[in-house]
């Protein structure tokens, strides 16, 4: 019963990831694609959590926080590139 | 690169960075010290510390971060390599092959009985080298106009 619930939720998250991949390919503008990538990262966190419950291990718990941090930094870097044209500025007060 | 001459005010991003950077650094230290018994270690710990520094570089600029942290990343890489080689050379004093690692149980106040392994010192070298190389690459790319 418990395993069935986990499998069903895994399938639902996988379908949602596929829909985000559609938005990533089709998305008319670049911000659409960036947001789709960010949401795929969050879905990846969910998949990792569900799989670590199914496999009955706590070895993947560190991966969850790692993916969260990396998704945040990646999205911030993308949006800074879209807004300003450069990611790392040399001197702000110019 | 196109440059817009509009002053931007990152009033949400900069305070969030000030909090999140500390959380990332603490997490990277946790990954570094837990490497012996659970997933983690010097490599991923160093990468996460570099990620915190990159987040600071994103929120502020290269000059501010250099003034605040004040570390020479090339010297950091050299120090890491030196530590890794010295832990290998230390085994010669005990008539054992190069890079032999050992550990012992030590009673530390507050922490109690703790296993201290010399492999942690080698891992510290890896940690410093990974931070140094990553930050050298990113800063060199970011500085050029």
UniProtKB/TrEMBL annotation, chain A:
Signal peptide residues on this chain, from the entry's feature table: none
Membrane topology: Multi-pass membrane protein
Keyword flag Coiled coil: no
Transmembrane annotation, as ranges: 6-22, 34-54, 60-82
UniProt superkingdom: Bacteria
Main location: membrane
Subcellular location: Cell membrane
Protein name (database record): Na(+)/H(+) antiporter subunit F1
Organism expressing this protein natively: Metabacillus endolithicus
From TrEMBL, chain B:
NCBIfam families, sorted: PRK12573.1
Keywords, comma-separated and alphabetical: Cell membrane, Membrane, Transmembrane, Transmembrane helix
Compartments, record wording: Cell membrane
Biological classification of the source: Bacteria, Bacillati, Bacillota, Bacilli, Bacillales
Annotated source species: Metabacillus litoralis
Protein's recorded name: Na(+)/H(+) antiporter subunit B
Family, similarity comment: Belongs to the CPA3 antiporters (TC 2.A.63) subunit B family.
Gene Ontology terms: cellular component: plasma membrane
Mitochondrion recorded as keyword: no
Main location as per UniProt: membrane
């Amino acid at each position: 019963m418990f395993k069935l619930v986990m499998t069903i939720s895994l399938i639902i998250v996988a379908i949602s990831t596929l829909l985000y991949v559609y938005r990533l390919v089709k998305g008319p503008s670049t911000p659409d694609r960036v947001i789709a990538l960010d949401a795929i990262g969050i879905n990846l966190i969910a998949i990792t959590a569900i799989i670590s419950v199914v496999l009955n291990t706590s070895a993947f718990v560190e991966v969850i926080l790692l993916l969260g941090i990396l998704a945040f930094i990646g999205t911030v870097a993308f949006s800074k590139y879209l807004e300003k044209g450069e990611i790392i500025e040399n001197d702000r007060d110019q | 690169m196109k440059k817009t001459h509009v002053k931007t005010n990152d009033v949400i991003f900069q305070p969030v960075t000030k909090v999140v950077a500390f959380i990332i650094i603490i997490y990277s230290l946790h990954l570094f010290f837990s490497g012996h018994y659970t997933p983690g270690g010097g490599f991923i710990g160093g990468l996460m510390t570099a990620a915190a520094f990159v987040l600071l570089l994103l929120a502020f600029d290269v000059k501010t971060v250099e003034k605040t942290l004040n570390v020479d990343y090339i010297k950091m890489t050299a120090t890491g390599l030196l530590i890794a080689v010295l832990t290998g050379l230390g085994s010669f004093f005990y008539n054992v092959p190069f890079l032999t690692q050992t550990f012992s149980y030590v009673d530390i106040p507050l922490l109690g009985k703790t296993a201290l392994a010399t492999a942690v010192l080698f891992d510290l070298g890896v940690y410093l080298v990974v931070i140094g190389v990553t930050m050298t690459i990113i800063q060199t790319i970011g500085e050029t106009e």
